[in-house]
Protein backbone atom coordinates (compact mmCIF):
# COMPACT_ATOMS: atom_id res chain seq x y z
CA UNK A 1 0.00 0.00 0.00
CA UNK A 2 1.48 3.39 -0.99
CA UNK A 3 1.06 6.78 0.68
CA UNK A 4 -1.81 7.68 -1.63
CA UNK A 5 -3.84 4.89 -0.04
CA UNK A 6 -3.63 6.33 3.51
CA UNK A 7 -5.36 9.53 4.59
CA UNK A 8 -4.96 11.34 7.93
CA UNK A 9 -8.12 13.30 8.70
CA UNK A 10 -9.43 15.53 11.47
CA UNK A 11 -13.14 14.77 11.74
CA UNK A 12 -15.98 14.85 14.28
CA UNK A 13 -16.76 11.14 13.83
CA UNK A 14 -15.55 7.90 12.32
CA UNK A 15 -18.51 7.89 9.94
CA UNK A 16 -17.53 11.31 8.61
CA UNK A 17 -14.01 9.99 8.02
CA UNK A 18 -15.36 7.07 5.99
CA UNK A 19 -17.51 9.35 3.87
CA UNK A 20 -14.67 11.83 3.26
CA UNK A 21 -12.16 9.13 2.27
CA UNK A 22 -14.71 7.30 0.14
CA UNK A 23 -15.51 10.53 -1.72
CA UNK A 24 -11.84 11.21 -2.42
CA UNK A 25 -11.15 7.68 -3.67
CA UNK A 26 -14.47 7.11 -5.45
CA UNK A 27 -15.44 4.20 -3.20
CA UNK A 28 -18.37 3.07 -1.12
CA UNK A 29 -17.89 4.10 2.56
CA UNK A 30 -18.09 0.42 3.57
CA UNK A 31 -14.83 -0.15 1.67
CA UNK A 32 -12.91 2.23 3.94
CA UNK A 33 -11.28 1.16 7.23
CA UNK A 34 -10.75 3.85 9.87
CA UNK A 35 -8.38 3.84 12.85
CA UNK A 36 -8.54 6.55 15.55
CA UNK A 37 -5.02 7.78 16.35
CA UNK A 38 -5.91 10.80 18.53
CA UNK A 39 -9.02 12.11 20.24
CA UNK A 40 -9.50 15.70 21.35
CA UNK A 41 -12.08 16.10 24.11
CA UNK A 42 -14.64 18.90 24.09
CA UNK A 43 -13.85 21.93 26.29
CA UNK A 44 -16.65 22.19 28.89
CA UNK A 45 -19.13 21.35 26.17
CA UNK A 46 -18.23 24.49 24.17
CA UNK A 47 -16.40 22.70 21.38
CA UNK A 48 -17.39 19.45 19.74
CA UNK A 49 -15.23 16.36 19.93
CA UNK A 50 -12.57 16.07 17.23
CA UNK A 51 -10.85 12.90 16.10
CA UNK A 52 -7.62 12.44 14.17
CA UNK A 53 -7.88 9.22 12.19
CA UNK A 54 -6.13 7.16 9.57
CA UNK A 55 -8.35 6.01 6.70
CA UNK A 56 -7.31 3.13 4.44
CA UNK A 57 -9.06 1.13 1.70
CA UNK A 58 -9.86 -2.42 2.80
CA UNK A 59 -8.33 -3.81 -0.43
CA UNK A 60 -6.27 -2.49 -3.39
CA UNK A 61 -7.79 0.72 -4.72
CA UNK A 62 -7.95 -0.52 -8.31
CA UNK A 63 -10.03 -3.54 -7.29
CA UNK A 64 -12.34 -1.47 -5.08
CA UNK A 65 -12.82 1.18 -7.76
CA UNK A 66 -13.61 -1.57 -10.24
CA UNK A 67 -16.20 -2.99 -7.84
CA UNK A 68 -17.81 0.43 -7.38
CA UNK A 69 -17.93 1.05 -11.14
CA UNK A 70 -19.32 -2.44 -11.74
CA UNK A 71 -22.09 -1.73 -9.23
CA UNK A 72 -23.04 1.46 -11.08
CA UNK A 73 -23.00 -0.27 -14.48
CA UNK A 74 -25.15 -3.13 -13.22
CA UNK A 75 -27.61 -0.69 -11.69
CA UNK A 76 -27.94 1.14 -15.03
CA UNK A 77 -28.45 -2.23 -16.76
CA UNK A 78 -31.21 -2.99 -14.22
CA UNK A 79 -29.70 -6.38 -13.41
CA UNK A 80 -30.09 -8.04 -10.02
CA UNK A 81 -26.38 -8.68 -9.51
CA UNK A 82 -24.12 -7.79 -6.60
CA UNK A 83 -20.35 -7.29 -7.16
CA UNK A 84 -18.25 -8.80 -4.37
CA UNK A 85 -14.49 -8.78 -3.88
CA UNK A 86 -12.95 -12.24 -3.45
CA UNK A 87 -9.80 -13.09 -1.45
CA UNK A 88 -7.64 -12.80 -4.59
CA UNK A 89 -9.14 -9.34 -5.37
CA UNK A 90 -11.15 -10.71 -8.27
CA UNK A 91 -14.61 -9.14 -8.60
CA UNK A 92 -17.30 -11.79 -8.41
CA UNK A 93 -20.72 -10.95 -9.86
CA UNK A 94 -23.42 -12.90 -8.06
CA UNK A 95 -27.21 -12.81 -8.06
CA UNK A 96 -30.28 -14.02 -9.90
CA UNK A 97 -29.17 -12.38 -13.19
CA UNK A 98 -25.60 -13.74 -13.03
CA UNK A 99 -26.22 -15.98 -16.05
CA UNK A 100 -27.14 -12.95 -18.16
CA UNK A 101 -23.89 -11.14 -17.40
CA UNK A 102 -21.83 -14.20 -18.42
CA UNK A 103 -23.33 -14.43 -21.91
CA UNK A 104 -22.46 -17.01 -24.56
CA UNK A 105 -18.97 -18.41 -23.94
CA UNK A 106 -18.46 -15.62 -21.40
CA UNK A 107 -18.56 -12.89 -24.07
CA UNK A 108 -20.67 -10.45 -22.00
CA UNK A 109 -18.48 -10.96 -18.94
CA UNK A 110 -15.32 -10.40 -21.01
CA UNK A 111 -16.79 -7.25 -22.57
CA UNK A 112 -17.69 -5.81 -19.17
CA UNK A 113 -14.21 -6.63 -17.84
CA UNK A 114 -12.66 -4.83 -20.84
CA UNK A 115 -14.91 -1.80 -20.27
CA UNK A 116 -14.06 -1.58 -16.56
CA UNK A 117 -10.34 -1.66 -17.31
CA UNK A 118 -10.79 1.16 -19.83
CA UNK A 119 -12.75 3.18 -17.27
CA UNK A 120 -10.11 2.78 -14.54
CA UNK A 121 -7.13 3.37 -16.86
CA UNK A 122 -5.73 6.79 -16.10
CA UNK A 123 -7.30 6.89 -12.64
CA UNK A 124 -4.34 4.99 -11.23
CA UNK A 125 -1.72 2.46 -12.25
CA UNK A 126 -3.21 -0.36 -10.21
CA UNK A 127 -3.55 -4.01 -11.06
CA UNK A 128 -5.78 -5.16 -13.91
CA UNK A 129 -9.41 -5.83 -12.97
CA UNK A 130 -10.65 -9.40 -13.36
CA UNK A 131 -14.32 -10.40 -13.29
CA UNK A 132 -15.89 -13.72 -12.41
CA UNK A 133 -19.47 -14.86 -11.96
CA UNK A 134 -20.17 -17.59 -9.41
CA UNK A 135 -17.16 -19.71 -10.45
CA UNK A 136 -17.57 -19.30 -14.22
CA UNK A 137 -13.83 -18.85 -14.82
CA UNK A 138 -12.99 -22.13 -13.07
CA UNK A 139 -15.61 -23.94 -15.14
CA UNK A 140 -14.32 -22.24 -18.28
CA UNK A 141 -10.73 -23.24 -17.47
CA UNK A 142 -11.73 -26.91 -17.13
CA UNK A 143 -13.61 -26.68 -20.43
CA UNK A 144 -10.57 -25.13 -22.13
CA UNK A 145 -8.31 -27.86 -20.78
CA UNK A 146 -10.59 -30.52 -22.26
CA UNK A 147 -10.69 -28.58 -25.53
CA UNK A 148 -6.89 -28.41 -25.65
CA UNK A 149 -6.49 -32.16 -25.10
CA UNK A 150 -9.12 -32.95 -27.73
CA UNK A 151 -7.43 -30.62 -30.23
CA UNK A 152 -4.08 -32.30 -29.60
CA UNK A 153 -5.53 -35.76 -30.24
CA UNK A 154 -7.25 -34.50 -33.40
CA UNK A 155 -4.08 -32.85 -34.73
CA UNK A 156 -1.95 -35.93 -34.16
CA UNK A 157 -4.55 -38.26 -35.68
CA UNK A 158 -5.06 -36.14 -38.82
CA UNK A 159 -1.48 -34.94 -39.12
CA UNK A 160 -2.79 -31.40 -39.63
CA UNK A 161 -2.97 -28.27 -37.47
CA UNK A 162 -6.18 -27.57 -35.57
CA UNK A 163 -7.37 -23.97 -35.32
CA UNK A 164 -9.32 -23.08 -32.19
CA UNK A 165 -11.89 -20.30 -31.74
CA UNK A 166 -10.73 -16.72 -31.00
CA UNK A 167 -9.91 -16.33 -27.31
CA UNK A 168 -8.72 -13.80 -24.77
CA UNK A 169 -5.08 -13.83 -23.65
CA UNK A 170 -6.07 -15.63 -20.43
CA UNK A 171 -7.92 -18.35 -22.35
CA UNK A 172 -5.07 -18.81 -24.82
CA UNK A 173 -2.65 -19.17 -21.94
CA UNK A 174 -4.76 -22.00 -20.50
CA UNK A 175 -4.46 -23.83 -23.84
CA UNK A 176 -0.71 -23.27 -24.02
CA UNK A 177 -0.12 -24.38 -20.42
CA UNK A 178 -2.30 -27.48 -20.80
CA UNK A 179 -0.25 -28.73 -23.78
CA UNK A 180 3.20 -27.38 -22.87
CA UNK A 181 4.49 -30.83 -21.78
CA UNK A 182 2.90 -32.73 -24.68
CA UNK A 183 5.78 -33.66 -27.00
CA UNK A 184 3.41 -34.64 -29.83
CA UNK A 185 2.12 -31.12 -30.47
CA UNK A 186 3.15 -27.45 -30.48
CA UNK A 187 0.87 -24.48 -29.83
CA UNK A 188 1.08 -20.99 -31.25
CA UNK A 189 -1.18 -17.93 -31.16
CA UNK A 190 -1.95 -16.29 -34.49
CA UNK A 191 -3.96 -13.28 -35.67
CA UNK A 192 -4.81 -9.96 -34.09
CA UNK A 193 -7.13 -9.28 -31.14
CA UNK A 194 -10.04 -9.76 -30.82
CA UNK A 195 -9.71 -12.55 -33.42
CA UNK A 196 -6.43 -13.93 -32.04
CA UNK A 197 -6.59 -17.71 -31.71
CA UNK A 198 -4.49 -20.76 -30.86
CA UNK A 199 -3.27 -23.25 -33.46
CA UNK A 200 -2.30 -26.76 -32.33
CA UNK A 201 0.34 -28.28 -34.61
CA UNK A 202 1.27 -31.98 -34.72
CA UNK A 203 4.99 -32.57 -34.31
CA UNK A 204 6.56 -35.29 -36.45
CA UNK A 205 8.99 -37.60 -34.63
CA UNK A 206 12.68 -36.91 -35.16
CA UNK A 207 14.51 -38.90 -37.84
CA UNK A 208 18.12 -39.91 -37.33
CA UNK A 209 18.96 -39.52 -41.05
CA UNK A 210 17.76 -35.96 -41.36
CA UNK A 211 18.09 -34.74 -37.80
CA UNK A 212 15.32 -33.40 -35.61
CA UNK A 213 12.07 -32.57 -37.32
CA UNK A 214 11.41 -28.90 -37.78
CA UNK A 215 9.05 -27.51 -35.16
CA UNK A 216 6.84 -24.44 -35.51
CA UNK A 217 7.51 -21.27 -33.56
CA UNK A 218 7.43 -21.35 -29.79
CA UNK A 219 4.29 -20.57 -27.84
CA UNK A 220 3.28 -16.94 -27.74
CA UNK A 221 0.05 -15.82 -26.11
UniProtKB/TrEMBL annotation:
Q: Which PANTHER family match?
A: PROTEIN JAG (PTHR35800), RNA-BINDING PROTEIN KHPB (PTHR35800:SF1)
Q: Which GO terms describe its biological process?
A: cell wall organization; regulation of cell shape
Residue limits of the R3H domain?
Answer: 138-204
Q: What GO molecular function annotations does the UniProt record carry, in alphabetical order?
A: RNA binding
Q: Which InterPro entries match?
A: Jag_KH (IPR038008), Jag_N_dom_sf (IPR038247), KH_dom-like_a/b (IPR015946), KhpB (IPR039247), KhpB_N (IPR032782), R3H_dom (IPR001374), R3H_dom_sf (IPR036867), R3H_KhpB (IPR034079)
Against NCBIfam families, the record matches this protein to: Jag_EloR (NF041568)
Q: Which Pfam families match?
A: Jag_N (PF14804), R3H (PF01424)
Q: Which UniProt keywords apply?
A: Cell shape, Cell wall biogenesis/degradation, Chaperone, Cytoplasm, RNA-binding
What protein am I looking at? SpoIIIJ-associated protein
